[in-house]
Amino acid sequence: MAIKFHQYGWQSWSQTGVAPHSATQRIAYTVPTDYKSVAVYVNLYLVRTSAATTAGESRLYVTVTPSGGSETTILISGMNNSSVGSRAGTTQTEAFYLGPGDVVKVYSSDASTGGAIAYYAAIQFVLWR
After folding, report:
1. Which of 57, 75, 81, 82 is the most exposed place for a label (fewest CB within 10 A)?
2. In whole angstroms, what is the distance from residue 75 CA to residue 59 CA?
3. What's the pTM value of the predicted model, to 2 decimals?
4. Structural domains of the chain in order of their starting residue, each with its CATH number
5. pLDDT tens for residues 38-87?
6. What are the Cα distances from residue 119, in Å, to 10, 79, 101, 116?
7. Cα gap 108→46, rounded to integer Å
8. What is the C-alpha separation between 72 and 84, in angstroms, rounded?
9. Euclidean distance between CA atoms 65 and 78, whole angstroms
């Protein structure tokens, strides 16, 4: 049986000036039934845009939940700094396989007091039957 290429696409989210917050889901992608997928590129990047009164851990992270399984964090980018212009980033170019019904999510969080962060997250997928 030949592999039938179906789709090549992105899931992304970015926002500037995000105030401190608990873990908040920003992206969710579920591999459709009867399809397989490979995430071929993941980029997480954050920049402090205004100073925090008290620095706390700011993060972007990716989780994978296999169909019928438990959610597991696979990639984290974070910083604990209140200086404007501080930045952190992570890029993964090693592909990972996703089966039918598997879910990939991206979350952001910021435990600082005051200040703001600019967040950028992107995942590139290839989908086939």
Report:
1. 57
2. 10
3. 0.92
4. 5-128 (2.60.120.20)
5. 999 999 999 999 999 999 999 999 999 999 999 999 999 999 999 999 99
6. 16, 12, 27, 10
7. 10
8. 31
9. 21
